[in-house]
Amino acid sequence: MAHYKDTEVPGHCHAKRLLDELQLRHHCCGRHGFKDWFGVQWVSSRYLDPNDQDVVDRIQSNVEGLYLTDGVPFSCCNPHSPRPCLQDRLSDPHAHPLFDPRQPNLNLWAQGCHGVLLGHLQGLASTLGSLLAVTFLLQTPVLLGLRYLQTALEGLGGVIDGAGETRGYLLPGGLRHRLRTAWLQGGAAHRPAPGEAPPEEAPPGEDPPEA
Q: Where in or outside the cell (predicted)?
């Protein structure tokens, strides 16, 4: 927003077009609302009349020497509004007849672009996640079929055109056999090996009687 006026500055010359397209496409104004434009100079100094006393007073009244107004760019205007767009002097209740500045949503976009963009990105992320989930579900039966085909070909000795009957499988011996083997291997890992068993201590012998 601070570079909206820099239409001839290299690196920022497209900021105005991008912001105008953003606000028009997503029906938003400013970051959190239209009043955000009141705190930045969005009118280029090359379009200001240095002989106009109002312009001079506004620049001198600002510590940073900026030309701040209570107006917004044209892209903040709601084209569905029944009246012409009101862009300037929005804080003055007497500047525009029959216009209530407490209800600017009747003339300007009420939402800020920050929240609108977050909602848009969250929607894109949700759509992408759904596409990935559907792709995974579609690929699962394909992978299972390829596994059955691989094991069936192994039963034929790898000959694709070989004659004979064979059966495909997912896991050697079946799922129950694999689980049982894993459970037995896990139990055996916790048992000490026969050669590693600690030697039993011999019972203390009786000392021979002294002569």
A: Membrane; Photoreceptor inner segment
